[in-house]
Amino acid sequence: MNQLQAIKAFARVVEMESFTRAADSLDIPNATLSKMVKELESHLGTRLLQRTTRRVTVTPEGQDYYDQTLRVITDLEDIDASLNAARSKPRGTLRINIGSSTATDILIPALPDFIARYPDIIVDLGVSDNHVDLIGNHVDCVIRGGKLDNSSLVARSIGNAEMITCASPAYLKNYGVPAYPEELNNGHRLVSYVTHHNSRAVPFKFMKNNTLSEMKSEHRLGVNESNAHLAAGLAGIGIIQTFSYCAAPGLQSGRLVEILRDWRPPVYPFHVVYPQNRHLTHRLRVFIDWLVASFPVQLNRVQSLK
C-alpha cells in the first residue's frame, strides 16, 4: 500500500462525501479508490468512514485522522508547488464561478490580460447568480459579493462596488421622482432582486449620515438574475437598486436616471473565495494575485463611466 496515496484518496472522499465523486475527481475507478481506503483502514486498525447505500459519513476517528493528515498533505503540496513554480509556468484548467453582471461588466473585459500573461491556463468560467458548492462542483474559486457566512471558506477581498437607486425616465414621468426613501411606499413600483438560496427579495437599503435603513416594501416584480434585473429597470417596470457598474451604460445614454442620491446604499464588498482545505495550485495562486490587482482597477474604471 502506498500510504500517502491512500491518505489523499481518503481525504478526497471526506471532502466530496461520496466515493463516486471522489473517484471521478481523482480520475481513478471507484473500485480502486474503495480498495485504497479499505487498505488504509486495515493498516490503521480502525474504521475511518461509515458507508451506507445513500451516503458516506466520517467516523470520529476518521475526522481526527483527516484533520491531522491534511496538514501533512498541504505541507507536501506547498513544497512541491514552490519548487515547480520556480521552474515552470502555471498550466492546467482553472474553474471559476462568478455572478452574471460581474462577469459581463468586470471580469470578462479584463480577462484578455490574464490569458495573455498565462497562455497555458485554460479558464472554465461558470456564470450564474446561484451559489455553488465549490468542492462538490469541482470549482477552484468563486467571485462573490456581499456578506460571507461560511467559515469553512477562505475569502480574500478584491474591492467594493457602489450601489445606486435608479429608474427609467418613462417610469419617473408616470410615477414621479421620490424626494426621500419613505416616498417609495406611496404608490411607487419596486423591482426587487430575489436571491436563489432562500427565494427572498433583497430589501432596498439607504444610507445617510452613517445611518443605515432598510425598506421591505412589496415589490411589483422580483428577478433572480442580475442582468435581467437591470433590464426590468430599463424597461420602466419599476425602481431598482443595482451596482453602479451595471447602470453605467444606461446612465450615460439617458435610459436610466439615478434617484435618492443623498441616500445611496452602502458599498458592496467583493471577495474571491476558495476552500481552506484545498491546496492552492500554482494556477489558482497566480489568478488570485492577478484578480486582487486587476479587479479594483476595472471596477473603478466602469463605475467612473456613470
Automatic annotation (TrEMBL):
* Domain of life (superkingdom): Bacteria
Extract the InterPro entries matched here. Answer: LysR-type_TF_proteobact-type (IPR058163), LysR_HTH_N (IPR000847), LysR_subst-bd (IPR005119), WH-like_DNA-bd_sf (IPR036388), WH_DNA-bd_sf (IPR036390)
Q: Which UniProt keywords apply?
A: DNA-binding, Transcription, Transcription regulation
Q: Does the keyword Transcription regulation apply?
A: yes
The record's SUPFAM superfamilies line, in alphabetical order, gives: Periplasmic binding protein-like II, Winged helix' DNA-binding domain
Q: Which residues form the HTH lysR-type domain?
A: 1-59
Q: Which family does it belong to?
A: Belongs to the LysR transcriptional regulatory family.
The identity of this protein, by name, is: LysR family transcriptional regulator
Q: Which organism is it from?
A: Rouxiella chamberiensis
